[in-house]
Amino acid sequence: MTDGLPMPVPAEGLPARVRIHEVGARDGLQNEKTVVPTEVKAEFIHRLAGAGLTTIEATSFVHPKWVPQLADAESLFPQLADLADGVDLPVLVPNDRGLARAMELGARRIAVFGSATETFAKANLNRTVDESLAMFEPVVARARAAGVHVRGYLSMCFGDPWEGAVPVAQVVAVARRLRDLGCDELSLGDTIGVATPGHVRALLTGLGEAGVPTDSLGVHFHDTYGQALSNTLAALQHGVTTVDASAGGLGGCPYAKSATGNLATEDLVWMLEGLGIETGVDLGRLTATSVWMAGQLGRPSPSRTVRALSHQEQ
Ligand code: HMG
Ligand code: MG
């Protein structure tokens, strides 16, 4: 190991490059008990971009009462205008109202967010699965007609805190419907972090058999049981090249009991660097960003890599 990086030792059957979809500013901060000031969010996102991340989910245009932590989307998004040339800044949009708010500010990438289970659809969107897909339909159509890229999140792909294990066929069915709406990519959410690598392979195989192309998929693992990196490796071995992660391991979902932080971006970058896979991310700058953010939040980062590289000085 030199300069805070592992020695690269490539392994067979893995992609040459991985696109990291950074979700710390959205999935991370939506779950904070206190509302982080808008200037701190803007600085966080600028620092993430400075560390080389090129897809940074910025915020959500949801109902401000449902997610008060992100109620400042209108004042935050314009503060990121200087990044727009080199960095994609997707935002979450559940419905027409959210799309109108995002388009008004010139957002070029949006994400709708569906659920594989009825219980979470109801808890998160106040809709059944059918009703939420009906709500997304005009959103996806309008966005695409305006040349806006659409990601479709699919939550509870492995387990649900109310319904237990979620059958692969059930997830595949909703994934197909999100694709049929016109989503450009799908992100498979392990919202409560219960997946294990065999289950990841089984779902990716099921999706492939149902005609969902692997290159249109991203994976979104929460790290509740410490499985997020193993699950990521299983997905990479299956051909997935887009991985969601959150700087410092921030995260969770306010409407899913027992959801903890996402896979930490630093832990992901450490593994990818070790495998000789390109990410374009400067791990030192990223770690410094998470240490700074931990200072803003008043508690240490749960990321093992952040702790190791910062010698626990947080
Ligand atoms: P609802 O209460 O059913 O809303 O919420 P409604 O459609 O009945 O509208 C009621 C009022 O809200 C209306 O105002 C609307 O205009 C207003 P009124 O006419 O009464 O004055 N309204 C809005 N205002 C601002 N922006 C909007 C908006 N929409 C309606 N976009 C709704 C339905 C979808 C809005 C609500 O359930 C909601 O905002 N949910 C968001 C929940 C959320 O953000 N969860 C976290 C993100 S998902 C996640 O974290 C999982 C993920 O990370 C993947 C994984 O880990 O699995 C992505
Ligand atoms: Mg999430």
Tell me about this structure:
The chain is of the alpha/beta class and 314 residues long. The protein has one domain (19-313): Aldolase class I (TIM Barrel), CATH 3.20.20. It is built from 12 helices and 11 strands. A 9-stranded parallel sheet has the order 2-1-11-10-9-6-5-4-3. Strands 7-8 form a two-stranded antiparallel ribbon. Helix 4 links the parallel strand 4 and strand 5 (109-115). Helix 6 runs parallel beside helix 7 (168-181) and helix 8 runs parallel beside helix 9 (228-237). The two termini are 22 Å apart. The relative contact order is 0.16. The model has no long low-confidence stretch (mean pLDDT 95). 3-hydroxy-3-methylglutaryl-coenzyme A is lined by residues 27, 30, 60-63, 66-67, 92, 94-95, 97-98, 101, 113, 124-126, 153, 155, 189, 191, 220, 253, 255.
Order of adjacent strands in the largest pleated sheet: 2-1-11-10-9-6-5-4-3
Helix-strand string: EHHEEHEHEHHEEEHEHEHEHHH
Rg of Cα set: 18 Å
Straight-line distance between termini: 22 Å
Mean pLDDT: 95
**What share of residues are in beta strands?**
5-15%
Question: The CATH topology is what?
Answer: TIM Barrel
* Structural domains: how many: 1
Are any ligands bound, and if so which?
3-hydroxy-3-methylglutaryl-coenzyme A, magnesium ion
Q: Which blocks of ≥5 consecutive residues have pLDDT under 50?
A: none
Mass-distribution shape: globular
